[in-house]
Amino acid sequence: MTLATDQNLDLDKLSPTARRMLELRDEILWEWAERVRQSVKEAEQLPHPILINTFPSLYDNIAEAITPGYPRATGNESNTVASEHGGERARLTNYNVHSVISEYQILRWTIFDVLKANGVQLNDEEIYRINASIDGSVREAVNAFALAQLALRERFMAALTHDLRNPLSNAKLAAQLIEHSSDLGRIKEFAGKIVASLDRMDGMIQDLLDSARFQSGERLRLHLEEFDIQQLAEEICGQFTFAHGPRFQLIAQSARVWWDREAVKRAMENLLGNAVKYGASDTPVRIKIDPVHGRVILTVHNEGEPIPPEQMESLFQVFQRAAAAREGNKEGWGIGLPYVRSVAESHGGSIEVDSADHHGTTFLVSMPADARPFQHVPTLEGK
After folding, report:
1. Which domains does the chain have, with CATH numbers?
2. pLDDT digits over 118-128, tens only?
């Protein structure tokens, strides 16, 4: 099984060393998690599904990249795995830039150490590909981390400013009424309203001073319930098969999740709808579900014209709607995708995209299987 973002199902395409890397994936990731907890203070108390983040997909992408002739030069090429990792670290953790860089450096040496301990000998080209993949991922993750922090800070300040206007306006109005009143009872009432408004403003400002994580992102109101995501996927595939014919392939296993079923259903319908609208009509749409390290990864893959790299992030309108997304020859790309991102982020997860000529387009939603502890994390994008 591969968790690579191009949804590669044919392990025979990979080199023997790459296949051996996949066999050692869990050993390497568990060792990495232990080393990160020991070395990165901000990671000490993170739940494992949040700590592991997008690293399973990045790791498998690297395994592809070291395969001679495979159409992926580095693990971060033509996908948003690293940038999503940086965004999640900004939203869900107390990480700083140094923390983000450190965990990639730890991944590098964990891969080398565990492979060597298991008798896997890497040649110079494979070592170069691994290093290039991690170096490129660091750059993308750090950039996304900084942008996400800025976006959250701006959202927080905008929300705070908006919220402060109401008690300030109420206090001003009460003060103006006092100016024009000689009734001591009414004056006392207005004065009480001024005090109440000022107390409310003081509480808001105190929250600002005390808040280190800027919990101001707009988010969905979740109604979490336990269900089997495989059954939901079968239901949706049945609906799309009825409407569009037998081109939908589901590769899934039973996985119990605590998610908002209706929100996830709508998100999956958006992803399949986009795959039908923009994918080549004579090719299958493949849906894949993989439980891994306390998370569940849902991918939807279609063949067809790729998404231009410069439009990938703007599809989700995280920071701003890119002009290319509005004016490009694929007008309509991204319809529903901001909602899908909102669903993923509101569950403590993220959405990634991998798109290129040689392997089609894959959208990958990764969320903790149990989203209950993460209902109140900030998000970057509303509905």
Report:
1. 11-152 (1.10.490), 154-210 (1.10.287.130), 225-374 (3.30.565.10)
2. 999 999 999 99
